[in-house]
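Consider the record:
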Amino acid sequence: MPQIIDGKTISTAIKDELKKEVAENNIKATLAVIQVGNDPASSVYVGNKKKACEYIGIGSASYELPEETTEDELLKLIDDLNEDDSISGILVQLPVPKHIDDRKIIERISPLKDVDGFHPESVGNLCIGRDGFVSCTPAGIIELMRRSGISIEGKECVVIGRSNIVGKPMALLLLANNGTVTVCHSRTRNLKEICKRADILVAAVGKPKMINRDYIKEGAVVIDVGIHRMDNGKLCGDVDYEDVSDIVSAITPVPGGVGPMTIAMLMVNCVKAAKQVK
């Protein structure tokens, strides 16, 4: 049986540590969460973020804007929140409606309040190894492995996916932890052969159950970033869990693996943002 990397347990431990730190140090933090439109999945994510803030003892300010909100109106709200000293972190729930340029929105958030870790300055800091906010899902994956006793140093690591939110920062974090990193994507040739070399495989491909045992080296660590709802209502990841579980050494389940860590690391960034302004 493989080691099941339990994101629920680890994320709860992180939030408990933050709760203690906030209480003991009287940290005053407030996360501003902006949602444009009423996408059901976004509403669930926003609700979970509010619950996490409440759990660790920090404030949350919710801005639920109608679908027809203009780009200029959204930018003005961000400007106001940037100037508001009571707000320590700003998060705009993605995706935004098509008439709004998400790149402009991300770049408008002050780097000091960029708790999502998406601002170009945050990404630049990650690239050159300077301290800053790190995109929450990749940061959560590193923490999952660290707390599960999985060493990255010297390992061959393969990341499938090159998005700005997961794939690229994931590769940089693995590199920062002394992994040898290959990034694969839709134009990669011989994908199965490359994945078969991986001691650590991070699947962020966005296709349900695409990664089966043909992609996996025996004894590999498999991190599944994907989450999809099947026709029968059950959730699955990018990895065919049943097909690979007998050959891997460790694996994240879906649900209950990477997902809970994203919000836990958002809370880490929120507390960090509050401490920076003291």
